[in-house]
């Protein structure tokens, strides 16, 4: 068994042909704006990965999904980031059906049949602000709900067919509650502005999506009982679980691609090479443990999310330790002759920038371990 063989076996079994399609392109081509990776993902029926089998989807288990995502991240970091947001949105729709959102099944079947891509307007990207405080507002006006605001960065900004966005709605008593809005990309008032200036992960299409007086049927907005600073409900716990595990697996895949290059080159000592594999595989085993528990439990609670966050932060540390060692093992001539190694090392650090940040979560994690409700800020 070679490094990453188990993950690539899952990828080939569930999305046949995608790994080969990605491997046929140079890394630089996959990671640029206008990358062919998203088209390959659609062709392999990737949009339906997390749609249950009884609705014609692939019906991947959480364990299969994280292994597959590591394999994707090893071939194309930008695709791993972008598709994590799609899968996160699909998983949210699956969960929304448990809250009476009947339209969600129709959309899920369209995701499979039409291979739709869903962008996620879940709140992030604003320094010092709560992840549960969206920049998009929803206002009831007669028989409609009107959205205003923007999401930046928003992956899949150019390729999305539907935007699923977290929004704030104000009750009659002035209380702000969170809701999830389903917005077709061609809805009047939806536009895209340039935002992502870095060449790293440019293929994820992470730009600003702007909503200006976007009018929706109220059935396209799923209300929750969550307010800023309140305990999480089941919908948000499920969303955080999928997001943290899939994103972590994808970035572990990116770091693994760098380590794989070092292993193939044979640099350093056997102890050095074994250390690299141990770092990343141990982190992945923690992710898999949480994913396996998700597949075995009918209900997902806060303790499981605490373990997911623990696995995610441990993976950040493993990546930080492994990537400079792998770069060193590749040697100076590799550094001079190709940007691939430095690109992968840089891209793998991106996990640290996704919400919720370790600094903002540390106190909440400690409180949760002391028996208090988990509050993610």
From TrEMBL:
What SUPFAM superfamilies does this protein map onto? Acyl-CoA dehydrogenase NM domain-like
According to its UniProt record, the EC number is 1.-.-.-
Name all Acyl-CoA oxidase/dehydrogenase middle domain ranges: 121-214
Q: Listed GO molecular functions?
A: oxidoreductase activity
Sorted alphabetically, the keyword list is: FAD, Flavoprotein, Oxidoreductase
Q: What class of enzyme is it?
A: oxidoreductase
Query: Domain of life here?
Result: Bacteria
User: Which PANTHER family does the protein's record reference?
Assistant: ACYL-COA DEHYDROGENASE, ACYL-COA DEHYDROGENASE FADE28
InterPro entries membership:
Acyl-CoA_Oxase/DH_mid-dom, Acyl-CoA_Oxase/DH_mid-dom_sf, AcylCoA_DH/ox_N_sf, AcylCoA_DH/oxidase_NM_dom_sf
Alphabetical list of Pfam families matching this protein: Acyl-CoA_dh_M (PF02770)
Q: What is this protein called?
A: Acyl-CoA dehydrogenase family protein
């Amino acid at each position: 068994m070679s490094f990453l063989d188990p993950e690539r076996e899952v990828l080939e079994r569930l999305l046949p042909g995608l790994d080969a399609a990605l491997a046929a392109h140079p890394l630089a081509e996959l990671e640029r704006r206008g990358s062919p990776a998203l088209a390959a993902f659609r062709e392999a029926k990737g949009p339906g990965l997390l749609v249950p089998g009884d609705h014609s989807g692939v019906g991947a288990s959480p364990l299969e999904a994280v292994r597959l995502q590591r394999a994707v991240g090893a071939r194309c970091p930008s695709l791993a980031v972008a598709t994590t947001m799609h899968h996160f949105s699909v998983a949210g729709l699956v969960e929304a059906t448990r809250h009476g959102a009947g339209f969600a099944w129709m959309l899920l079947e369209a995701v499979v049949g039409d291979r739709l891509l869903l962008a996620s307007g879940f709140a992030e990207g604003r320094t010092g602000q709560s992840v549960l405080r969206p920049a998009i507002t929803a206002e009831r006006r007669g028989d409609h709900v009107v959205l205003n605001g923007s999401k930046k960065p928003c992956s899949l900004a150019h390729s999305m067919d539907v935007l699923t966005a977290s929004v704030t709605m104000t009750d009659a008593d002035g209380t702000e509650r969170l809701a999830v809005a389903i917005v077709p990309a061609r809805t009047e008032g939806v536009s895209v502005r340039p935002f992502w200036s870095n060449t790293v992960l440019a293929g994820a299409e992470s730009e600003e999506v702007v909503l200006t007086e976007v009018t929706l049927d109220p059935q396209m907005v799923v209300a929750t009982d969550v307010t800023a600073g309140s305990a999480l409900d089941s919908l948000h716990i499920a969303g955080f679980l999928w997001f943290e595990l899939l994103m972590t697996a994808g970035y572990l895949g990116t770091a693994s691609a760098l380590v794989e290059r070092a292993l193939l080159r044979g640099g350093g000592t056997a102890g050095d090479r074994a250390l690299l594999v141990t770092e990343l595989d141990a982190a992945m085993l923690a992710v898999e443990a949480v994913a396996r528990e998700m597949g075995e439990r009918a209900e997902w609670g806060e303790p499981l999310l605490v373990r997911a966050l623990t696995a995610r932060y441990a993976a950040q540390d493993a990546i930080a330790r492994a990537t400079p060692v792998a770069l060193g093992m590749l040697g100076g001539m590799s550094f001079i002759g190709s940007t691939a190694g430095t690109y992968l090392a840089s891209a793998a650090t991106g996990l640290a920038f996704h919400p919720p940040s370790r600094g903002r979560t540390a106190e909440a994690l400690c409180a949760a371990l002391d028996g208090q409700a988990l509050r993610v800020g």
